[in-house]
Amino acid sequence: MDQAKLRKIEKGSPFLRPPKLSREAFKAFIEQRGWRMADVACRWSIRPEHLSRITADEDRDLKWDDLLRSLPALSAFERSCVTAARLSIIPPKPRQRKGRPADEPVQSAAAEAAGAAVQPDPPFKWEHGNDEEEEEEEEEDDAFKPGVDGFRYQSYLSRGSELVVVQEIDGFAREHAILVVTATRVGVDPAGGAQEEYQCESATGDRRWIAPDQIDDWLVSNGKMRDL
Questions:
Q1: What is the DSSP code string of 118-184?
Q2: Which residues contact 64 (CB under 8 A, 6 or more apart)?
Q3: Residue 111 counted as domain residue
Q4: Contact (CB, 8 A) for 165 and 219
Q5: Which end of the chain is more exposed for a tag (fewer CB within 10 A), N or C?
């Protein structure tokens, strides 16, 4: 092969196989463009949990890096408009106020003293704008950071769910192996908070309890279920 052709190949190869972004660079790029994680997930029509796994996976398909680089830069005002639009498309669920069971009526001090219950408050709704909107947006962003929500997989991982190993789990499972969730339990994360843990079984019958942060790093759901 002549030198001219070799130079062309050398120059063209980085366009076809560029280095992939680290997880830190991937997240930083989103922030530099002025986007929130929740808004990017909405734009790409994927679940926020899926975006969290994509961000954490440094062996992700190159198309995700390309999609990331195609995000338009947003001003602060445009960012707030995008979030408002996303909240109109996917309204947040009403949140239970801390320290009160969902079915417990709200009572005033006077009513409690008299033993009379008052009508419960209507479902809590965010009034978009000002400090309340900013507080909600910050909490939603925090929910997609690995390690923050110890129950972020609870709604779609259960007994019988299949998981694909995207990064070798030393001494337990090789890359591309299929694991199946055989049980769940509530455990404690390194910071002392509660988290749901998933007992996963390999093809050899070995089992290991895996935490949400480890799922971010090692596993991805293929959407399949097994009868156990």
A1: PPPPPPP----SHHHHHHHHHHHHHHTSTTT-TTTTTTT--TTEEEEESS-BTTTB-TT-EEEEEEE
A2: 54
A3: no
A4: yes
A5: N
Task: Tell me whether residue 2 is exposed, middle or buried, using C-beta atoms within 10 angstroms of its C-beta: 0 to 12, 13 to 18, 19 or more.
Answer: exposed
Nearest Cα residue to 120 out of 109, 131, 108: 108
Instruction: List Cα–Cα distances, 73 to 3, 22, 34, 40, 85, in angstroms.
Output: 41, 20, 6, 12, 17
Q: Give the residues across from 165 on adjacent strands.
A: 219
23-32 and 48-56 are packed helices; what angle lies between their axes, rounded to 10 degrees? 130
* pLDDT of 169 above 80: yes
Looking at every residue in the chain, the average pLDDT score rounds to 76
Q: Which domain holds residue 203?
A: 161-225
User: Per the domain annotation, does 107 fall within a domain?
Assistant: no
Q: Give the CA distances from residue 118 to residues 97, 102, 106, 124, in Å, rounded to whole numbers and listed in that order.
A: 17, 15, 7, 17
DSSP state of 112: H
- pLDDT of 47-81, one tens digit each? 878 888 888 888 899 999 999 999 999 998 898 88
CATH number of the domain residue 213 falls in: 2.30.30
